[in-house]
Amino acid sequence: MDPEAAVLSANRLWPWDRTRRHDLLEDIMKQALLELLICPHCRPQESPLQVSIQAARQDDIITGSLSCPLCQKVYPIADGIAFLTPQQHIPQATNRYEMPAVVASYLWSHYGDLLGDDMATDAYQQWAGLMRPSLGNCLDGGCAVGRFAFEMAKKFDLVVGLDNSVAFIRTARELMAKRRLDLLLPEEGKLQRPVTLTLPPDWPTLNLDFIVADAQALPFRAKSFSGLASLNMVDKLPDPLAHLSEINRVAKPSGAQFLFSDPFSWSTDVAPETAWLGGTESGPFAGRAQTNIIDLLEGKKGCLEPCWQVESHGPIWWKIRTHCNHYEMIRSCFIKAKR
Ligand SMILES: C[S@@+](CC[C@H](N)C(=O)[O-])C[C@H]1O[C@@H](n2cnc3c(N)ncnc32)[C@H](O)[C@@H]1O
User: Fold this and answer.
1) pLDDT digit string (tens) for 169-188?
2) Which CATH superfamily includes the segment(s) 96-338?
3) φ/ψ (deg, to 5) at 259
């Protein structure tokens, strides 16, 4: 480590170190984001986190931690990435979203239009078009490699992309920092095609941040966000209702927009049938998930308050690429709500 690289404790800085601490902090996360963060383990009690920064700039490694004074849990920051899951985050080898081929697949899915690929869809532009520009903060829950978060940075003051895949968050952060990314697109078998993805010059990135966290235990203060999105994730969660409750908790009680979308590919590999929000014949969420989630948002199921007003709903066709001869078409059912 660079001998110059001091261990900077936020609480033990001389006044002349403050600017330096600020620079390092900005490399890790925006100050405005830090002010929103609470301990995900103690929530809904709001315990703000204390930052401690240890940085080695020469190696371009930025490390540190965020700690909770209440429960004493320490959330690491490694390579500039803050890990804010309530339990210690151990990337699972079995998590398909950590695999390089899946990262390439999602990069194509999110940015295929920027790569000039004729097969790309405009799904993210359609989803983005459903959100009105607004003051305040926007959360993209399950952001993957970040396209919707980048789109929202054009419309909101501060945008946070959150995902529990380290590979996805690392990739989104690299694109945010460098504005370009070299990637290998799978073509056939072991053959790959190198391409370079470049962000359009007018896309803002300074009001954007990406963190590793759990969408079922959001590390944010209540009433923090005026824009919220949950795209194609709810059927991938063990506790879909916990995620919607968390979205509801961190959304502003008035002046908020929520964009939800999902193909509802329910599976017992992910969640027990009793936790599904649709696709069953009995139980509180029998029938179709789109109807049930509209009912939930409109307060007809009694657990999301203050209730939301659904502005529109419908399908958006979205495409994932596995290799040059294999694509998956997904009909994602969106619900746009406000309150
Ligand atoms: C099907 S992908 C959709 C990604 C993106 N929202 C989109 O529409 O392209 C599901 C995403 O949810 C993320 N995810 C799954 N479980 C999660 C959890 N518990 N907390 C946060 N993200 C999660 C995955 O890593 C993945 O990025």
Assistant:
1) 999 999 999 999 999 999 99
2) Vaccinia Virus protein VP39 (3.40.50.150)
3) -110, 120
